[in-house]
Design brief:
The chain is of the alpha+beta class. The chain has six helices and 24 strands. The strands form six sheets. Strands 1, 2, 22, 23 and 24 form a five-stranded antiparallel β-sheet that branches. Strands 17, 18, 19, 20 and 21 form a five-stranded antiparallel β-sheet that branches. Bound molecules: 2-acetamido-2-deoxy-beta-D-glucopyranose (3 copies).
């Protein structure tokens, strides 16, 4: 009986299958199907690429390089031996053969290195390029835009990161730990312009605010000594570098006082703008003034007794001194500095930090140097290092001296040359926002890129 039932069920099953077997579900998709095969190929290629650039390959490279490194000094030694001991006879002939042999070996190494390098480089970069193209094609199938959104998110996150890091720098001086490395060189002039007043004002200063207000990130400032080549009473501003060059100042002047010289007048060319405030030696005073461009107020701080002022402690070269350069204000990554000299320092350069955060500016840490101020034509500070220049010729100025404020080490062999465009540099300042040196002299504005490494 059971058997009969099972048999019945079995036949039922077969019939059911015969009837229903033809049922086909038709799925229509408006989109073209996702090319899984293509994705597979790209995945395989990526894997291959990973294999191509592997530690072994790099190791091979390193081995070849170190072999070269060992052989080159040997070759040098052999050549110098030959030079010393050449008797023109047997010894010379044998030594030459040894050298030839070594050179052939080195050539082989070089060829091999070149092959390894170019093979690796060509094939891999070509493959990466192809893969990029293929992935871009595959992105079309990202109909729900998931990948695209993810990418945007990553980009936004990175920008946000940069933004938060950029606007909250670590407090205090960057001294020594320079984010750009060591100052190696200064390029040829990047900008050279007579600006808005060609030939009119020999002395002045210009540059960018290292800590600009929001919306003023691209602004430039200019201070020209309009009265007797000594005094000024305003800051002129430009919204871009090109408007400075073309001489179009839409923001115009920000006045400290209606005329000069009077209380709080700017005295001397070596001024800087920092956080929307101008720092300068104020008229007829042993003091640094800070003019707040927003509040239009001036605060000041006295320099130590004995500091030379009123054109008694100037920058000089052999033939002349630059008038009213007693106090050289400077900016770098960490803030504002002032360079001056005092009677007790016997005319040597003194460097002090200027703390500008408080109600009134104050002097911070001070460093004393062994370099005589009259042997120096100007100074600037970059990454916590003081640099001093001297006059070489009307075309060349040399950065010859440095003082590292972290280690206290002084150097007199910096040996970096600046190509001048106008005979003299009366003010020189470093801009940490773009690592440029801004120079002003003989009514010309010139800038140079600082090369770090
Ligand atoms: C390096 O290899 C490339 C091609 O593989 C060749 O064109 C080039 O001349 C080689 N360079 C040297 C210095 O052997
Ligand atoms: C420094 O830069 C100048 C100007 O670009 C260049 O002529 C000089 O060779 C450079 N010096 C070094 C040591 O790189
Ligand atoms: C300048 O004045 C403004 C407005 O009073 C103030 O917010 C700002 O902190 C001042 N800047 C300096 C450097 O004192």
């Amino acid at each position: 009986m059971y058997l009969a039932m099972i048999l019945q069920l079995f036949t039922l099953h077969i019939i059911f299958h015969q009837v229903v077997g033809s049922c086909v579900c038709e799925l229509t998709n408006a989109e073209s199907p996702f090319p899984h095969d293509k994705l597979n190929i790209v995945e395989k290629e990526a894997l291959q690429c990973n294999k191509d650039i592997n530690p072994q390959k790099i190791q091979e490279f390193d081995t070849l390089l170190s072999a070269l490194e060992r052989r080159l000094p040997r070759l040098v030694a052999e050549v110098s031996d030959l030079e010393k001991e050449n008797d023109g006879e047997l010894y010379g002939a044998i030594a030459l053969q040894v050298i030839e042999n070594d050179m052939a070996e080195i050539q082989q190494l070089l060829n091999k290195l070149n092959d390894t390098h170019s093979g690796l480089h060509l094939s891999t970069s070509q493959k990466l390029q192809d893969m990029k193209g293929q992935l871009q094609q595959l992105e079309v199938f990202d109909t729900t835009q998931t990948v695209k959104r993810q990418k945007t998110n990553i980009r936004l996150k990175r920008d946000l990161d940069q933004c938060t890091h950029g606007s909250h720098p670590t407090p205090g001086p960057v001294q020594g730990a320079c984010p750009h490395g060591q100052l190696l060189n200064v390029t040829s002039p990047r900008v050279h312009t007579a600006g808005e007043y060609p030939g009119s004002y020999k002395y002045g200063a210009w540059g960018r605010d290292p800590k600009p207000a929001v919306g003023k990130e691209k602004w430039y400032w200019l201070v020209i000594l309009t009265s007797s080549n000594v005094y000024s009473h305003y800051v002129r501003r430009y919204t871009t570098l090109s408007s400075l060059i073309l001489g179009v100042s839409t923001p115009g002047n920000v006045l400290i006082s209606p005329s000069n010289p009077t209380t709080n007048t700017i005295q001397g060319p070596n001024v800087v703008l920092y956080r929307e405030a101008l720092y300068y030696n104020c008229y007829n005073r042993l003091a640094i003034c800070r003019f707040n461009l927003t509040a239009k107020t001036v605060q000041s701080t006295e320099l130590p007794k004995g500091t030379r002022f009123n054109s008694k402690g100037n920058f000089c070269h052999l033939e002349a001194c630059y008038p009213y350069t007693d106090m050289d204000l400077a900016t770098d990554e960490s803030g504002v500095w002032v360079v001056y000299t005092t009677a007790q320092d016997l005319g040597n350069l003194v460097l002090s930090q200027v703390e500008g955060e408080g109600e009134e500016p104050t002097l911070g840490t001070t460093w004393r140097t062994s370099v005589y101020k009259t042997a120096v034509t100007n100074t600037f500070v970059a990454c916590g290092v003081l640099y001093a220049t001297r006059y070489i010729s009307k075309d060349v100025e040399e950065i010859f001296y440095s003082l590292d404020t972290v280690t206290g080490v002084e150097r007199y062999d910096v040996g970096i040359y600046i190509a001048k465009m106008a005979g003299h540099i009366y003010s020189l300042n470093y801009s940490p926002v773009d690592q440029m040196l801004h120079a002003y002299g003989e009514a010309f504005m010139t800038s140079y890129k600082v090369v770090f490494g």
